[in-house]
Amino acid sequence: MNHEAHCITESGRACSGYCCTKIENFGVELGNLKILDNINLHLHCGELTAIIGPNGAGKSTLVKALLGQVPHTGTISFMQANATASKAPVMGYVPQNLNLDPTSPTSVLDLFVAARSSYPVWLLKPRKEVQKVREKLDRVKAGHLVHRKLGALSGGELQRVLLALALDPIPDILLLDEPVSGIDQNGLELFYETVSALRKAFDLSIILVSHDMDMIYKYADRVVLLNRTVLAMGTPEEVFNSESFFEVFSMNWQKRRMKDGN
Amino acid sequence: MAWWYRFLEILPFEWAQEGQMIFMKNALLAVVLLSPLFAILGTMIVNKNMAFFSDALGHGAFTGVVIGSLFGFVNPIGSAVVFSLVFALLIAVIKHKSRMSGDTVIGVVSSSAIALGLFLITLGGRSFAKVNSYLIGDILSINPKEIGFLFVVLVLVLIFWCLFFNRLLLVSINPSLAGSRGINTFWYETVFSLIVAVTVTVSMSWIGLLVINSFLVLPAASARNIAGNQRQYHLYAIAFSLFSGVSGLLLSYYIETASGPTIVLISSIIFFVTYVFRKR
Questions:
Q1: Which residue of A132, A140, B42, B119 sits 20 to 30 Å from the alpha carbon of A204, by its own alpha carbon?
Q2: What is the pLDDT of residues A118-167, one digit of tens each?
Q3: Contact between residue A105 and residue B228 where contact means Cβ atoms under 8 Å apart
Q4: Is-contact B266 B215, C-beta < 8 A?
């Protein structure tokens, strides 16, 4: 369901009927080293944009810069459908993992209450609040995990919990930073299906950093090939068949895909 | 304090009778205040793997005491608080600015501090003996004014914990995630370090530099063995801390040992027992 409409690049003008996000002249420098340079992206709501690139291409840096945690040049602006003014987008972020030792006495409920409310989690959690958290978790089929310890979750369960957290409140842009490392195949399918359904249900712009070309081919609307700057952009078909793609990645994956006949 | 002395008279102990052993009664009240204070701060220290940091804080505070007594302050705790605040800030800023591992930064700053303290105290051939009391600590020396001060510290920490614990927890779980929800991670980490610094410093003369870190780490570590969420974690940590504090103080009175180490020994026994029965 690609939106045919596209953003008008002139700043201060609405996207034609749809909401969109414009990332313009984005760059990150560390000392004298240019980690990212001249990034221009238009993200449409309801689309999943996958960012791929070799290790060290600056994918995670781009995510950090979009979150405002790394100083950057350039602008990011979000425009509501038919709005005349842009605003800073509300970001939902799903990290790669938690730096939590597995014995940590932190339950899923603790994490949610800590993030979304001012009830001190060490003191009280009103029943109404617990019910609300359960509803948020139900969005990603994880309601039954509410009282489990974070360290006792499987990789796939943890990612769905973090996804539910990123969706509360519903963001303008959902950032997924290689969210599927260490997940079994079933968990992987479930995760991508959930993300895919959410993008339609909430008209979300999703940015996904990933290495998993099979899943990207199946679920992404657009692909951005990144190596310090944008090398190629378009539908998965277009990018995977581009010259830059062949240059950056070995052709193994492409061959395997043809052989499998997908 | 009269209400406390009267309350203790219902206990069947010899020292608890009217007019007896005022220092013991003061110490007991001090332990009742110190235990929850250290247990609460300890839960976050263990969450954030800051055990080495809080240990180093004692070293910084020690040097502060030395500098204070060199300048002739009657009560060098004031200068010690200032020094350990500077010390904690220094560690926080170096950690934030450089890419060196936190352990290394703490190791460098804390060994420099303790060396400076020992250098200054022995300067001109003076004896080390007068700072001995800060190494072992003496809870029996606490007076009612200091107990009042401890009470104020406990109340302030409880207020801080009610208002900001959620954000501290989120920062400890994942700084980027916390940042994406608008939390200034550096600020929260620094303020927490400063609170621990002040608490460790003011308590050092009662608990002793050598064992003070165990007061922070052991109750939380034991609670972690059996707790399933943050509320149980806090509840168990406070309970263990209170139990070992009160029983350790009483035991040290009857078998005539230093109270700090006795309390810590009981805490360690609790740790190993909970370790055996830990939730896997």
A1: A132
A2: 899 998 888 999 999 999 999 888 999 999 999 888 888 898 899 999 99
A3: yes
A4: no
Q: Give the number of beta-carbon pairs within 8 Å between A and B.
A: 96
Q: Which of A106-115, A186-195, B183-192, B236-245 has the lowest mean pLDDT?
A: A186-195
Residues of chain B positioned with their CB less than 8 A from the CB of A67: 176, 179-180
- Whether B218 is in a domain gets the answer no
- The answer to whether position B261 is within a domain reads no
Q: What would the pLDDT profile of A197-224 be if each residue is shown by its tens digit?
A: 888 888 888 999 988 888 889 889 999 9
- Domain extent for B182: 33-207
Instruction: Indicate the residue of A103, A147, A175 with minimum beta-carbon distance to B224.
Output: A103
Asked if A106 lies within 8 A of B227 by C-beta distance, the reply is no
Consecutive H or E run containing A206: strand A205-209
| Rounded-to-integer distance, Cα B130 and Cα B22, Å | 25
Query: Contact at 8 Å (CB) between A206 and A44?
Result: no
- pLDDT of A81 strictly over 80: no
- SS3 track for A88-131: CCCEEEECCCCCCCCCCCCEHHHHHHHHHCCCCCCCCCCHHHHH
Task: Compute CA distances A165 → A147, A226, B63, B78, whole Å.
Answer: 15, 28, 45, 44
Chain segment B128-184, per-residue pLDDT in tens:
777 788 888 889 989 999 999 999 999 999 999 999 999 999 999 988 899 888 899
Q: With cut-offs at 50, 70 and 90, classify the pLDDT of residue A11.
A: very low
Task: Let me know: does A114 contact B169? Beta carbons within 8 Å.
Answer: yes
A226-236 mean pLDDT: 90
Nearest to A105 among B49, B181, B232 (CB): B232
Provide, as residue numbers in chain A, all residues whose Cβ is less than 8 Å from the Cβ of B224. Answer: 103-105
Q: Does residue B162 lie within any of the structural domains?
A: yes
First to last CA, chain B: 45
What pLDDT is stored for residue B91 in this prediction?
Answer: 86
Phi then psi for residue A81, to 5 deg, are -55, 130
Q: Is any Cβ of chain A less than 8 angstroms from the Cβ of B229?
A: yes
Determine contact, residues A198/A167, Cβ cutoff 8 Å: yes
Q: For B227, which residue in chain A has the nearest alpha carbon?
A: A105
What is the CATH classification number for the domain harbouring B110?
A: 1.10.3470.10
Question: ipTM value of the model?
Answer: 0.87
Contacts with B230 from chain A: Cβ below 8 Å: 105-107, 110, 121-122
Measured between CB atoms, which of B49, B169, B180 is closest to A93? B180
Q: Nearest Cβ partner of A105 from B167, B174, B230? A: B230
Q: How many domains does chain B have?
A: 1
The mean pLDDT values, 10 residues at a time, for chain B of 280 residues are 85 81 91 96 93 88 85 77 88 82 87 89 80 85 91 96 95 90 89 92 88 94 94 97 96 92 95 89
d(CA A21, CA B197): 45
**Is B184 an 8 Å CB contact of chain A?**
no
